[in-house]
Amino acid sequence: MPLANTLTSVPVTVDQEKCIADKGCTVCVDVCPLDVLAINAEAGTAYMKYDECWYCMPCEADCPTGAVNVSIPYLLR
Amino acid sequence: MTTISKEDSILEADVLVIGGGTAGPMAAVKAKEANPNLRVVLLEKANVKRSGAISMGMDGLNNAVIPGHATPEQYVKEITIANDGIVNQKTVMAYARGSYDMIKLLDSWGVKFEKDETGDYNVKKVHHLGTYVLPMPEGHHMKKILYRQLKRHRVQVINRYMATRLLTGSNGQVAGAFLLNPRTAETAVIRAKTVILCTGAAGRLGLPSSGYLFGTYENPTNAGDGYAMAYHAGAELSGLECYQINPLIKDYNGPACAYVTGPMGGYTANSKGERFIECDYWSGQMMLEFYRELEGGKGPVFLKMDHLAEETISEIETILHSNERPSRGRFHERRHTNYRDKMVEMHISEIGFCSGHSASGVWVDENARTTVPGLYGAGDMAAVPHNYMLGAFVYGQIAGEDAAAYCADNAMPELDAAQVNQERERVLAPLKRSDGITPYQMEYKIRRMVNDYLQPPKVTRKMEIARERFAEVREDMQYLCASDPHELMRAMETHFILDCAEMAAAASLYRTESRWGLYHYRVDYPETDNDTWFTHVQTIKGEDTMPACFKRPIDPYIVELDEEEKDSYSKLRINNFVQQ
Ligand SMILES: Cc1cc2nc3c(=O)[nH]c(=O)nc-3n(C[C@H](O)[C@H](O)[C@H](O)COP(=O)(O)OP(=O)(O)OC[C@H]3O[C@@H](n4cnc5c(N)ncnc54)[C@H](O)[C@@H]3O)c2cc1C
Ligand code: SF4
Ligand code: SF4
Predict the structure, then answer these.
(1) Domains of chain A as residue ranges with CATH
(2) Are B520 and B430 contained in the same domain?
(3) What backbone torsions phi and psi does residue B450 show, to the nearest 5 degrees?
(4) How far is A16 from chain B (nearest CA, A)?
(5) Minimal Cα–Cα distance from A33 to chain B, Å?
(6) Contacts of A57 in chain B (CB under 8 A)
(7) Contact flag A77-B331 (C-beta cutoff 8 Å)
(8) What is the number of the ligand 1 atom nearest to the C-alpha of B356?
(9) Domain range for residue B322?
(10) Closest-lying ligand to the alpha carbon of B216?
(11) With an 8 Å Cβ cutoff, is B20 touching chain A?
């Protein structure tokens, strides 16, 4: 059974200007209970890699620069 | 003789605690305090800094037994009645007796509880009979405080490894666990004298009505891992037919929360703004009235606060939008729901297993021991009814201390290499398939079937059909594929979810009566039948590797109930208005 790529709009955004992942920060990735955030090494910023979010907000609360914004996932907004 | 492949690194521990949410950190700290020489390992699928149900904090204690406000005996009575008599009172009593000391311990660690002018705990009445709710308006420091204690007690923490199966020794005792790293797909083995399961609820059993897999009431990291692992290790589970179903904010699927707003004057209302239940404490009976109102002409159901004074509303807002589920405020904003002028629309959650809220769990006695030697359970996954957060802490302590004592008397079990190799093969299989069915699709399908066929009102024929569908999904397991380690974690969770779905169907079919209001409302057996079913229903893995159920008699009560109180939870509807 072949696989397809189905895109979804994710609820968590990271402000590229504020994110300091290029300086070694991984706080949001570390704290997320669902492990759905990751660092894009090329861009040097964090991003939401999987649309599996509990909108619980540790990522936003613990980010040292205020770069993360959690909104309610579209299906339940 | 088979030997364990070099692929797995092997670690040793005296006490292995699986799950570092609420009960887990307490269990680890208490085991270490009992004997600082023990090697205590705390394993966490996520990161102990922010994992589990209390990742952002908690709004309050739902079941504080504080001298001057309540006695352990009163509490045991209340929970016995709320759970329709099906309780092992000794386990509830062990919680109740430990409750106050645990509050004082948490207080000394820096947890802030609401106090009155005299410094006494400001306990509120939410339950039907007694007074047990202690607010924590500044409850957002919980995880930080626990983390500090883990450091202080030198507990070895392993983050971002999930346990996939328990390993057992030659006498059926626990021998350790098999682990998977969800970022690298590395596998590992921990050999242990004792294992304490603290893996939380089975939160991804039903599908939320939003259809979003992770928009669950429970922290969705908890997929029922502990239920499935205990089951495969041969442990008894109990009360699985007594589902968790909660009244929640529609679509947002988080608590509204009546425990916070109730004592301040808010209440559950119908579309006319009228109260229809006397008491907002979550019980199966309350949920049945909620369900009837929701489906009836006066539905849907709301949380009403628009009659409250401005200062009360702002206080409620501060608590509800900053503590436990802080994204609540964002949800309301987008829907233009202001507590001041609009009631909050409520709905019924998906079904789950959770003894923290209802009574479905791995069977444990008053020492937190399961039926497998050396294996303990604490928190939402251990069958101590209505145990909530404080119950997770108290049972974490009980388990940690008892496990430490067990270590002194028992040798380190040998690992069974064949078991380990077989598990590694099972775990890594989905990663080796380049196409097939994704965990996302399979999980969605199982959970949708759970909604279609298992969600109450329960119908015999529907539940039988569910079993047929689950059997077909089980056949499809051979096609389950994962494109990266993260998906592999989801694939392993899909296995847990299917195990739990099959157990839910088996236990629900077995008990041919209705009990616990909505939790086990069987349309074709609408009456409660105390002559036949005043008993626990246990589930184990049967000879045919499918769930098998049997009765376990209820131990004689240690606290007798007053005749007139017995059915007080069945009289929650206001004016005793009878509906069919
Ligand atoms: C939204 C919400 C609000 C609540 N409000 C209240 C309240 O106001 N008052 C109250 O008293 N109670 C409340 N409760 C209940 C209370 O939070 C829980 O009863 C309690 O926290 C459960 O603790 P636990 O240790 O069993 O589970 P958790 O704290 O959820 O911990 C389980 C841990 O196990 C980990 N885990 C799971 N599977 C694995 C695996 N395979 N390998 C390794 N680790 C694993 C998870 O990552 C998690 O960290 C609430 C619960 C929720 C969900
Ligand atoms: S925590 Fe903030 S700064 Fe750090 S990586 Fe995440 S978004 Fe970037
Ligand atoms: S809101 Fe929670 S689940 Fe979503 S990305 Fe942030 S930490 Fe992870």
Answers:
(1) 12-72 (3.30.70.20)
(2) yes
(3) -60, -45
(4) 22
(5) 5
(6) 56, 326-327
(7) yes
(8) 19
(9) 247-348
(10) 1
(11) no
User: Phi and psi dihedrals of A32, rounded to 5?
Assistant: -60, 120
Hey, is B119 helix, strand or coil?
A: coil
Q: Is residue B575 part of a domain?
A: no
- Per residue of chain B (580 residues), give pLDDT as tens: 456 666 678 899 999 999 999 999 999 999 999 999 999 999 999 999 999 999 998 889 999 999 999 999 999 999 999 999 999 999 999 999 999 999 999 999 999 999 999 999 999 888 878 899 999 888 889 999 999 999 999 999 999 999 999 999 999 999 999 999 999 999 999 999 999 999 999 999 999 999 999 999 999 999 999 999 999 999 999 999 999 999 999 999 998 877 888 888 999 999 999 999 988 888 899 999 999 999 999 999 999 999 999 999 999 998 888 888 889 999 999 999 999 999 999 999 999 999 999 999 999 999 999 999 999 999 999 999 999 999 999 999 999 999 999 999 999 999 999 999 999 999 999 999 999 999 999 999 999 999 999 999 999 999 999 999 999 999 999 999 999 999 999 999 999 999 999 999 999 999 999 999 999 999 999 999 999 999 999 999 999 999 999 999 999 999 999 887 777 777 777 764 444 3
Q: Which residue has the tokens 């009990």?
A: B515
The answer on B424 and B524 residing in a single domain is: yes
In this structure, the answer to whether residues B520 and B427 fall within a common structural domain is yes
The SS3 of residue B86 is: coil
Q: How far apart (Å, rounded) are the C-alpha atoms in residues B1 and B176?
A: 20
Give the DSSP per-residue string, B206-262.
SPPTT--TT--SS-TT-BSHHHHHHHHTT--EE-TTS-B--EEETTT-S---HHHHG
Q: Is residue B269 part of a domain?
A: yes
Q: Give the position, in ligand 3's atom list, of the atom nearest the Cα of A70.
A: 1
Asked whether residue B184 is assigned to any structural domain, the reply reads: no
Of B167, B100, B132, nearest to B397 by C-alpha is B100
Mark yes or no for CB contact A35/B215 under 8 Å: no
Residue of A1, A58, A73 with shortest CB distance to B50: A58
**Residue B390 in domain:** no
Helix (H) or strand (E) holding B176: strand B174-180
